[in-house]
Structure formats: C-alpha cells, structure tokens
Amino acid sequence: MRPKQKTLLWEFETEGGVGPSFLFGTMHVQDQRAFTFLELAKEKILDCSLFALEFDLADAPLAMDASMLQLPNNKTLDQLLSRPVFEKLRRIFLKTVQLDIATFRHFSPMLVANLINERLLSRDMPVSLDEHLWQFARQTGVPTTGIETYAEQMEVLQHISLDYQLKSLVSMGRHFRRHRQQLLHMAKLYESAEIFKLYQAAKRSASGLRGLLLFRRNQIMASRIGQMAREQRLFCAIGAGHLAGGKGVIRLLKQEGFRMRPVAWRGNE
Asked: Please, are residues 112 and 168 in contact by the beta-carbon 8 Å criterion?
C-alpha cells in the first residue's frame, strides 16, 4: 500500500471467490465534505448483495439503553468537576458552540463531547453519511447487516473510564481552538482521501485507548468482513481511520488472503 494511493474505496477478493467486494471509509458526520464520494459508493453498493456498517442501524433502537448515556448513581457533571472548572467550561461552550452543558449535566462527558463536536462541523445533510448509505441500500433492496453489534459497540464505550472522559472534556475546553482546528483538519483530510493521515489523526485522538478503540476493533472487523466477503459480494462502510496502518483493516484483510485494489475516483485518477 503506497502512501500516494489516496482513495477511500478499496476492492478486494480472493482467488476463486464469489467476486469483488468493497471496503469504504466513512466519516460519521452530516458535513457536506463527507459526501464527496457518495455517487461512487452508491454505484458499488448496487453491485453487491449485502451492505454492512459497523453496526446495523436497524438494531440500534432495540439495543439502546438510556442508562449507558447517563452518569452513574444520579451524579452530575457539576458534582464531578469543581464548580469553577464546570462554570468555566460552561462559558466556553456557550460562547463557542452555543451549547449549555448544564442542560446535559446528567449525561456522560463523552456524550457531551460528541454533541460539541457535532456543532463544530456543518450539518448540511439531514443524516450522517453512514445513515444515508444505509438508507440507500434498504431503499434499493440490498440487505443490510452489521459488522459488530450495537451492544458490542456500547460495551467498548463502557470500558472508557469516567475519569478519562472527564479529563478529555476539560482538555477540550481548555484547548478549544486547537481542538476545533484538529477536527476541521480531519474533515479536509477526508475530503482529500488522505487515509494515512486520517489514521495518524485517529491514533492521536485515541491516545491511550488505541488498543481498545482502534486495534482490537480492527481485528474483529477484518475477521468478520472476511467471513462475509467469502460468502457473497459485500459493500462494507467503516470509519476511515480504521483503514490504513500496520494494524489497519486493509493490511489485516491482505493477511487473510484478500487482494486489495484501490478504486480510483475523480480526484486521484
């Protein structure tokens, strides 16, 4: 895999298999820049007999547990943080993204951080890229599935300690300008299909949780993607940060015996 191969879409298959499948890197946002490759993705979805996201969105309402989003034992953010720190964060986020974190003080710091990130990027489209592709597959009669289950994803998040979440939220507020620049930079990298730089950004963002959030999940996803692709032509869409790197899904699928070929798009032809 050469660094100059800038594409978010990869074709892969095995010798004597059922035909080519496709691996597509997404960004879980509603920002228009994430939809740069939409038409190419739709074209390849129609060539396949199964569509897979990281988890099937049809399963989310059945598995959702509101308690997973809330702080334990009726705690609140203003109790877990010192009053001066909480009020400072509240002022910062009110001024920068017009979000009053006091409204969400019963919820996990990770959820609050996600709400803030959503407001930093444009919300040009009605739904995220992932959901748009999922809706397209269902509307065109392509069966959908999940690479992981929703419950599995929630279990991963539960392993992120509350202390780590609190420190991350405080750091976001204290270094808000830098955080915003980093997030906007990732959107630009995605628009340019810079999967290697996105992988590096994902590693930095995961910090001490790389094993939990990236590497372990990459192994699970690559194994399950491989199993599905040996049985039928598959279009799978996962976060672009999971694609590249020595422990990325592209490399892992190669190790499972798949030939990986970058699919050109108009920006890299």
From this structure: no
